[in-house]
# Entry
Amino acid sequence: MNAVAIDFEQFVQINHSEPVTTSEFVAKAFGKKHCDVLRKIEEIFTQVPDFFIKLNFKFNEKLVKVGFGERHDKFYELTKDGFMLLVMGFTGKNAMSIKIAYINAFNAIAEKLRQIQAKQYIDTSNQNSKPDGRYPTLNKRQQYLIRQAVLDNVAETANTFHSVYKKLYTRFNVYRYQDILAKDFDEAIELLGGVVNPIDNLPVLPNINQNGRWLLVVRNNQIAEVKSLKGYICLNTGAINKLII
# Structure
């Protein structure tokens, strides 16, 4: 097969807001038998961590008609990282030019996806949008709380930082958590397994210089009591971290 004649962008698709290819497309591009590509993928599975497999190789099946019957043929969806690991050792005529063309196709589709996502920020009919029509993204305090929720999620589960952040990126169609829309903040916190903190709804306190210091009693991440003290202030550590943002 002539590598120049291949439209590699047809081999890269968007699935769950991420560019992917398939083991069948890889076999076709490199002129290999699909069964050999599957064998190579499953050999990789014995050499890399499970989390890498989960993130970069997705098992699939399709129904194929054979004569008067049918069978299930398996294939894998591969991310760009999965593809690069798979073809790293591929050799043969035009192998290097095919790899480069394929990587360029991944990059081109990723750029198209970025442009699509950028357009989604524009909605002149939404009352929560800025005057220029764009939704506001997370402010600095919300970004901090997202990072804290990610830390809590990783500490309490077997998830990796990569998988937790990728979950956010996939759900909200962004490349960075900082680009999540401010209106989606509560949903992002809940997605991470956290509880939306009511710090934004703190009671209005009298002037601290006139009435001394205050004690905030925090129970179950909620402001339970506010008491006037004269000589000191006692705050829940988590509350301090959030109040100073």
